[in-house]
Each structure stands twice: as C-alpha cells, then as structure tokens.
Amino acid sequence: MQLIPSMDLLGGRIVRLRHGDRRQVTYYDLAAEAWIERLVSAGALRIHLVDLDGAFGEARQPAFREFPKRWPGVRFQTGGGLRSREAVQGALDLGFDAVVGTLAMEQPRALAGLPAEGIVLALDMKDGELVARGWQAPAGRDTGVLCRELRGLGFGRALVTDVSRDGTLEGPGTAAIARIAEHGFRVQASGGLRDLRDLENLKSIPGVVGAISGKALLDGALALDDPAVREAMASNEGGA
User: Fold this and answer.
1) pLDDT, tens digit, for every residue of 93-109?
2) Quick count: other Cβ atoms within 10 Å of Cβ 141?
3) What Å distances lie between residue 25 and 6, 22, 33, CA to CA?
4) 124, 162, 166, 198: which is the annotated catalytic residue?
C-alpha cells in the first residue's frame, strides 16, 4: 500500500477544501516547492497534484509544468480541468500521469488510444453517485455501465474519492472505494484519511493499491518523521 501525498493549489497557494466546497477553504502558509522538497526528503515516490482553478472551470495554473523535470525521481500525477483529449495529452507530454474525471465520465471514448499506463481515472462519488466538474454536478452515468466501458477501453487505474469524507479526517469512504475496485480497477483511495490505521483498513479491500493524503500530512496527523509513514510513501504499489 503506497501512501501518496496530495497537494491542492488554488490561485497558486496550497489549500484544502472540506467536501470539495470552495467556500470551505483552508490556506497553508507553505510554498508548493518547499512542501515537495520535504515530501521527497521523507521518501515520497509519487505525489498527487490538483489544479483547483482548472477543476472549477477557470484557467489552469502554470505552476505544475516543471515539477516532473525538477524532481525526476518522483512520479507526479495531476488533475483538475483536463477536460479534452488535447489537455490530457499535454499533461502526458510534460511527464505527468493524467488524472481524468469529467472527460472520462462524460465522453469516455475520447480517451481511446491514449496510453493506459499514463491515465488515472478520477471516479469520484457523493451519496453513492458519480460526480463531475469539480464535484459540483452529478455525472449522470450508471456506475457499473461506465466502469465496464472504461475497462473495455483498456484503462485499469482509478482514483476514488468519497466527496463527503474529503478534507474531514473522518476516515475513508470504504463503500465507494470498494464499489469501484470490484470492477477490476487498481484503486488509489482518497478522502478522509486520518492515520496509519486507516491505511491498514484500506489494505483489506481487494484492488486498493494506494491511499492519498492531503490534510493528514499537512496538519501532521501523519508525521513525516514517522518511519512507518516514510515506508508507506516509499512503497511502489500505488502506481501499479
């Protein structure tokens, strides 16, 4: 089980949103580059980046573009606003894994032919239903039908967030995570992670290979000097 640090940027600043709500935002007095350096020093092999400006339909931020070149030992995955095939391809060309949500749910065949190893599907759920467009709208797709279509296109990795748990430190939404994993995806679980016990609980769900943490790491609930945290970040399972 790989622990994957998450960093959300809004207007160039590190933030955390509660339930994905832009009105419930916490700003961190910490530069993105400085936080990456601390994560890398602690052993992180994969970092998840969210462009919240892009997720909310605004211009995507340029700050991420050079990260894969600056830290070649880290596998970066980025999402938020990748709503066209061209945008996804652009992220891949920069050396990122592309985290694709709205496009994957609304136009899955637009992804046909893209390298599956570079795509992480963002299949986010709220109240048992898929949500899109920065978690602001129902996707309007049956979960099972969509999962089968995406698997049929050759995609095998999914990032699953229970939006009701995101930014709350209330524990992961295991029902939503298991629902996607049962379709054969290798899942990165996101939302609500509190501590190492949650990592152990997620390990019991077949198909879960990674867990994403933003708030718990930023707030110190998961301490970067904890050997167990370092070991989990240095695992290579989450990118499988």
Assistant:
1) 999 999 999 999 999 99
2) 18
3) 15, 6, 20
4) 124
